[in-house]
Amino acid sequence: MKCYCVINFQQALQLVDRPTPTPTGTQVLLQVRAAGVCHSDLHIWEGGYDLGHGKRLSLKDRGINLPLAMGHETVGTVVSMGPDATGVEKGKNYVVFPWIGCRQCVACLEGMENHCSAPQYLGVYRDGGYADHIVVPDARYLVDIGDLDPATTAPYACSGLTTYSALNKVGAKTFQNHPIVIMGAGGLGLMCLELVKAQGGAGAIVVDIDPVKRQAALDAGAMAAIDGNAPDAAQQIIKANGGKMVQAVIDLVGAPSTTQIGFDSIIKGGKLIIVGLFGGASPWPIAFIPMRAMQIIGSYVGSLQEFHELMVLVRAGKVKPIQVTRHELSEADAVLASLHHGKVTGRAVLTA
């Protein structure tokens, strides 16, 4: 099979030819139909994360080894199964839940494989969708998509699930009654905006430094789109919210500047949900956290149960697909470079 792999960090993806795997046990082999190119893939390609204060977390320290075919937003067609695989049919299209754990630890046994301390995430720790085939360890991680478009469905495995889980942490009682703030208007930001609307939300104010992405957010129904580089960004958020501080901020960037804006615009007792992995050190005074009774919550993708809940909404037609641009698998390196340079609006998807 053909796959485009990270061979060396910060160098071009390389085409690698490997034997197509034969599934064993409960494994399922799928022919890849679509694979989203996510900003998280850039962190893998870059080789690590900025922790602030001059510190950096390398992927080696995180247990990620090369060569690696990235791609954790994958839709494929079942072509073969191991003798113990059940619950899927050859020839049908499925979206893959990639956040697979060891299936033995407390987190996994409680249904939170995305919190596993020995993860086996597809496209992160195991080869993913930047390939013409992918092996999934068990059919339980496959969700039937029926006649949905593979290219617009693939992003639900990360951008959809990640923002759905972040909204769950905000709580429906909050986002259905009060506008929230979404930091970042890339693929995740636009997806989060759609999920707010799909679940009867009161609206969202979007913040981004890119005017093209701000316009995309307005076109998608944002109440306001604010320049994150503006020195009075927090004040503009409060003004857009009718002069009131906001109940919740979902930060899909995770930079010192965005967390500061969020911190400065949240009401006493509000929530700051940090999703993005841009990196850096926290800029806010610690004493203000208890003084303002703030909840600062990290959110990492989502659970298999949440994925099933999300896909029920999608199959019911309640979630409008975000803008996607389609590319051949052979364009994987060029697409990743475009994302690196901030040239992608919505989601870029490799298709077959």
List the domain count as a whole number.
2
Mean pLDDT: 96
Element-by-element helix/strand order: EEEHEEEEEHEEHHHEHEHEHEHEHEHEHE
Low-pLDDT runs = none
Q: What structural class do helix, strand and pairing data support?
A: alpha/beta
- CATH topology descriptor of the largest domain: Quinone Oxidoreductase, Chain A, domain 1
Please give the largest β-sheet.
7 strands, mixed
Q: What's the Cα radius of gyration?
A: 20 Å
CATH class category of the largest domain: Alpha Beta
Helix content: 25-40%
**Count of alpha/pi helices:** 12
Shape descriptor = globular
- The CATH architecture assignment of the largest domain turns out to be Alpha-Beta Complex
According to DSSP, the number of beta strands is: 18
Strand percentage: 25-35%
CATH homologous superfamily identity of the largest domain: Medium-chain alcohol dehydrogenases, catalytic domain
**Terminal CA distance:** 13 Å
Give the gist of this structure.
The protein has 352 residues and is α/β, with parallel strands linked by helices. The chain is built from 12 helices and 18 strands.
Describe the structure.
This protein has helices at 39-46, 106-109, 150-153, 159-170, 172-175, 187-198, 211-219, 233-240, 256-265, 288-291, 304-315, 332-340; strands spanning 2-6, 14-17, 28-37, 48-52, 55-58, 68-69, 73-81, 93-96, 133-136, 142-144, 180-183, 204-208, 224-227, 246-251, 266-274, 295-298, 324-328, 347-351. Strand 15 (266-274), helix 10 (288-291) and strand 16 (295-298) form a beta-alpha-beta unit. The chain is built from twelve helices and 18 strands. It is globular and about 60 Å long. Helix content is 27%, strand content 26%. It has two domains: 2-157 and 302-351, Quinone Oxidoreductase, Chain A, domain 1 (Alpha-Beta Complex); 160-298, Rossmann fold (3-Layer(aba) Sandwich), CATH 3.40.50. The protein is of the alpha/beta class. Strands 3, 7, 8, 9, 10, 17 and 18 form a seven-stranded mixed sheet that branches. A six-stranded parallel sheet has the order 13-12-11-14-15-16, with helices on both faces. It has a three-stranded antiparallel sheet with strand order 2-1-6, with no helix packed on it. Helix 4 (159-170) packs across helix 6 (187-198) and helix 8 (233-240) crosses helix 9.
